[in-house]
Amino acid sequence: ALFDALFKNLGGAALDVFEVEPLAADSPLWSLGSDKIMLTAHNADLTEDYYELGWEVWQANLAKFVKKEPLHTPVNIAAGY
To answer: Which run of H or of E encompasses 14?
Structure first.
C-alpha cells in the first residue's frame, strides 16, 4: 500500500523501522530513488544518551577522516543507506 501511495498520492516518505530487518534486498522500496524515499538503518531514535553518543561518533569519525581511515558509520549509496 505504501509503495502504491508513493506513486499516486504521497510526495515521499522517511522509513526507519520495518517488519523484517534489515529491509530485504529485493524490496520494491529500494527502487523508488532518493527523491521519493529515505531509508535509515533503524537508528532514528532519541534516547537519553543520544547526543553524547552522537558527538563521540562524530569526533571519532573526524579523527579517522583526518588520518584517511575508514569511518565508523559510512554511507553506502549502492546499498541505499
So the answer is: strand 13-15
What pTM value is reported for the model?
A: 0.47
Residue 79 Cα distances to 10, 27, 48, 61, 76, angstroms: 23, 12, 30, 21, 5
Q: For 32, phi and psi rounded to 5 degrees?
A: -75, -30
40: region left, alpha or beta (phi > 0 left; psi from -120 to 50 alpha): beta
Residue 39 burial (C-beta neighbours within 10 Å; 0-12, 13-18, 19+): buried
**What are the beta bridge partners of residue 37?**
13
pLDDT digits (tens, 9 = 90+) for 30-40: 888 788 888 88
Q: Tens digit of pLDDT for each residue in 9-27?
A: 888 888 888 888 778 888 8
